[in-house]
TrEMBL record:
Membrane protein topology class: Single-pass membrane protein
This protein's UniProt keywords: Membrane, Repeat, Signal, TPR repeat, Transmembrane, Transmembrane helix
Subcellular location: Membrane
Segment forming the signal sequence: 1-20
Lineage per the UniProt record: Bacteria, Pseudomonadati, Bacteroidota, Cytophagia, Cytophagales
Family: Belongs to the Tom70 family.
Chief place where the protein resides: membrane
TPR repeats: 66-99, 100-133
Database matches in InterPro entries: TPR-like_helical_dom_sf (IPR011990), TPR_rpt (IPR019734)
Classification via PROSITE patterns: TPR
Repeat is among the record's keywords: yes
Superkingdom of source: Bacteria
Name this polypeptide is given: Tetratricopeptide repeat protein
């Protein structure tokens, strides 16, 4: 326990801005994925070496150290301290560039910041290390869908559909993937299938459902099961 506390204290980051605050300010490379991809100065490289040497002394191996900083990053992210979280994720990445969770976390944060194309780059790096991870596939597909909605390029819709099919084949109970498959079918104008996937999703988990999407789908085709009728929608909004 002592070694973990020492490692955490040694590299504590004071930045505590929320995602909304970050969008209005220029971000430091420390709180950008992979340190912003910029060449580091000699002083920064020496600082990284000291960090790695310290972790080598305080952890069994760098994989363990990377996992530790990932866990701290998730804690900060759940508290709304996104800058601090990304810095922790960067430290985890520095320790182990083959840790898929670092790229996954970068994708989630970048997506939340509204940069879906950059988020996709991060997700693809994670998928290169874990190509069959159902939850990762569904997160990547969500960003592809967001890009499709903006640019209307079918290749993005096809990519989302492919990833979601793989995700649900790997885990048929992935409600988020099923929901996004519904959205894919909506854009393909296959409204009956869209309803089918939507109901499969809501039977597993209602929390990810966007009721504005339901209104769009109802406008194209009434709910065949009658679950999302006018009365239910009114009740859900109250």
């Amino acid at each position: 326990m002592k070694r973990l506390l020492l490692a955490a204290a040694a590299f504590l980051c004071a930045t505590t801005l929320s995602l909304a605050q970050e969008q209005t300010a220029e971000l430091s490379p420390k709180v950008l994925p992979m340190f912003g991809g910029k060449q580091k100065t000699e002083a920064e490289q020496k600082q990284d070496e000291k960090f790695l040497t310290s972790c080598d002394k305080n952890f069994t191996d760098r994989q363990e150290a990377s996992k530790f900083f990932m866990e701290r990053g998730w804690e900060y992210l759940n508290e709304g301290q996104a800058d601090t979280a990304v810095y922790r994720f960067n430290l985890a990445w520095l320790l182990n560039p083959d840790n898929k969770d670092t790229y996954w976390a970068f994708g989630l944060v970048t997506s939340a910041r509204g940069d879906q194309e950059h988020a996709i780059e991060m997700y693809e790096k994670a998928l290169a290390l874990a190509p069959k991870n159902s939850l990762l596939l569904s997160d990547a597909a969500s960003s592809y869908l967001a890009v499709y909605k903006e640019k209307k390029k079918k290749k993005n819709l096809k990519k989302a559909a492919s990833y979601l099919s793989t995700a649900t084949a790997s885990d048929p109970t992935n409600a988020f993937a099923l929901y996004n498959l519904s959205v894919v079918k909506f854009h393909e104008k296959k409204y009956s299938e869209a309803w089918d996937y939507l109901h499969k999703s809501r039977n597993l988990n209602m929390t990810q459902i966007d009721y504005s999407y339901i209104m769009e789908l109802v406008d194209k085709m009434p709910d065949p099961q009658g679950f999302f009728n006018a009365t239910n929608q009114d009740s859900a909004s109250n």
